[in-house]
């Protein structure tokens, strides 16, 4: 699964395998504030990338623009070789993507949110079957079977008919993971998925992600404050600062021997806090 | 001063009840149209497309800012000049429905705005198309908190139906006035009409509250 281990170099060069996710010169501004600053990032198929950094450094924005929850101001994002926010026109040049084209590419990406964002008026089962039925056109029985398998995988097969409000935060987050997986994405985004959870509930969610990493050739990008988990789980860790990847490497490199001052300062501040 | 004449009241009761059916017909069908039309007006106003959002918003504000009576006159007395001839009852129902659609549109707007952004983000992440997103995810959540407000508009419509007498619709109030001018007794018919509205309004309010409770426990 860890096919690419040479990510210490700047990843702007084209790697041998086509990347599953590519950011090329992506810039995102909120008024005066530049949140992503000519960002280049390539993620190989099946690669697990952890994104760490101080708040406001643009790490969540990275996931949000990849999920098309935010627009970008400059640059190109590609998923499995297809531009996400642009599409080729008749002459082969890139024009802003139509809603329909964008939905096609977006279907390859799934996301799990910090605050779960389950549909409160639907049962667990309905939460997981809604999109496969409406978007993928699955028959009800197929969608239910898929939901039952996924909910068994996250250990919630006995909560099918419960409503989100009847579940703990950790359980809700596991439902959210199952819901995203039901769409069979190639890329999964995890945006601080344990930050809203009590410490004793983090473990059950991280265990699910761990199992997911073992069982599937899923490409994963996760923004996290759980340095221990990032170190153990990720193939590569990116330290974000001021809208750019300030430093990146394997977990051992980045946590064991950070090269840049800002990275060292951040990591020692995090260590002190624990 | 005469006392309330029970025999007379009983005598005019059938005529009043007959007209009451018209009143109820106007209120129910007017509300039914207003609730559906209002939703589309709210969605139109929220549209990303300016050419749709702006005219819808202008229409809603225009209708909300002019009296129902004038709108009824336009529908019944002016539109025939432009080839649209409606019976008094049709014009009345259309007028009151259009008027209240603009009020319910604002209620829907508030309900839709109250659905957290995070729900829209989940909808996007799951790639749901706008139709499924609204129907399955957003509207069910938007509707629950605005049900009392919608119910109140049903009661408002009911109480506004006497305005339709101005365009010759014989609803219960018009019938009562007719009885009064025929017999020179107003005490009984007007009192009975007042009671009719009171009982029906209270009954509707009770129904709305029951519906709310049912939705509350349904989750």
Detailed description of the structure:
- By secondary structure, chain A is an alpha/beta fold.
- Chain A has two domains: about 20-110 and about 190-274, Rossmann fold (3-Layer(aba) Sandwich); about 120-185, no CATH class.
- The longest helix of chain A is centred in the last third of the chain and has 17 residues, at about 200-215.
- In chain A, strands 8-9-10-3-11-12 form a six-stranded mixed β-sheet, sandwiched between helices. A four-stranded antiparallel β-sheet of chain A has the order 2-1-4-5, covered by helices on one side.
- Chain A starts with 20 loop residues before the first strand and ends with a helix.
- Chain A has helices spanning about 60-65, 100-105, 125-135, 140-155, 170-180, 200-215, 225-235, 250-255, 260-274; strands spanning about 20-30, 35-45, 50, 75-80, 80-85, 85-90, 95, 110, 185-190, 220-225, 235-240, 245-250.
- Chain A is built from nine helices and twelve strands.
- With about 220 residues, chain B is mainly alpha-helical.
- Chain B has a single domain (about 5-215), classed as MetI-like fold, CATH 1.10.3720.10.
- Chain B contains eight helices and no strands.
- In chain B, helix 1 packs antiparallel against helix 2 (about 50-65), helix 2 (about 50-65) packs across helix 4 and helix 6 (about 130-160) packs antiparallel against helix 8 (about 185-215).
- The longest helix of chain B is centred in the N-terminal third of the chain and has 41 residues, at about 5-45.
- Classes of the chains: A alpha/beta (about 270), B mainly alpha (about 220).
- The interface of A and B includes residues 120, 121 and 131 of A.
Topology:
The complex is a heterodimer of chains A (274) and B (219).
Chain A: E1 21-30, E2 33-43, E3 48-52, H1 59-66, E4 74-79, E5 82-83, E6 86-88, E7 94-96, H2 99-106, E8 109-112, H3 124-134, H4 140-153, H5 169-181, E9 187-191, H6 199-215, E10 219-223, H7 227-233, E11 236-241, E12 244-249, H8 251-256, H9 261-273
Parallel strand pairs in A: 3-10, 3-11, 8-9, 9-10
Antiparallel strand pairs in A: 1-2, 1-4, 4-5, 6-7, 11-12
Chain B: H1 6-46, H2 50-64, H3 68-78, H4 88-114, H5 117-125, H6 130-160, H7 172-183, H8 187-217
Helix pairs in contact in B: 1-2, 1-4, 1-6, 1-7, 1-8, 2-4, 3-4, 4-6, 6-8, 7-8
